[in-house]
Specification:
This protein has 303 residues and is an alpha+beta fold. Helix content is 50%, strand content 12%.
Length: 303
Amino acid sequence: MKKWILSLSLAAGVIGLAGCSGGNGEAIVKTGAGDITKEELYGALKDKYGEQVLQQLVIDKVLSKEYKVSEKELDAKLAEVKEQVGAQFEMLLAQNGFTDEKDFRESLKLSLLQEKASTKDIKVTDKELKEYYDNKQPDIEVSHIVVEEKDEKKIKEAKAKLDKGEDFAKVAKEYSIDGSAEQGGSLGLISRDAPNLDEDFKAAAFKLKKDEISAPIKTQFGWHIILVTDIEEKEPFDKVKDELENEIKVSKLDPEAVQAAIQAELKKAKIDVKDEDLKTTFDAILQEDEPAKDDSADKKDKE
């Protein structure tokens, strides 16, 4: 099957091209050199982004008919992302081409729809679930001080001040070089399996007790000192069972499984693209994998 990519970071204005396809000559911009009509804008956007956006719109519509994502689920997922990236949330939006939080939220919805479609047939045993629960570490609330790799001397100075009893937030504001410094180094709650956090950082943080301060540790981002300010209590198994089951299912997914699930849903929907310019938009997605060629017969003939 040909590789295909569904972009979730298209600007909302580009997605809106589907609504401006009237084909009339109404001018949306007037200049001394001539006007730009809705038809011209639609044509330009279609040429540049048409297939990407059409894929996104159709997949959203097809999956939304079979699966539902509640506002509560979206709120929880958005809160999870914000918790993981902390003060870097606005930077995350900008770097990935999202116009605002609403735009990002729409992409989260599509991501959750794809997740539901892809995990519906995955089974999780009671044994798997209980083992996962027993091994899962509770989230912790952390603060840190971070300096560049070349500044080992500075991190040692900061640690010396902390050892003398100086306030962690005050030392963080004095030494730390990232955006958390203004919040006294606070990174909020972090999860042991958070994908965006450095593994060395997590390994050190989750060894600490509440109110314990680490020795300076080195990661790919520089030198850190970590303080654990709180450790969440583990919720009862029955209360989090469904959530953990979904986590296990998602962990079993790979890109091929997601692609196969989306392909199956689109085939059921019997897509018929009327626009001749976009007629082949779904060909790569719907194309079956070609079976591996058995060349043993050819070799035998040659022998």
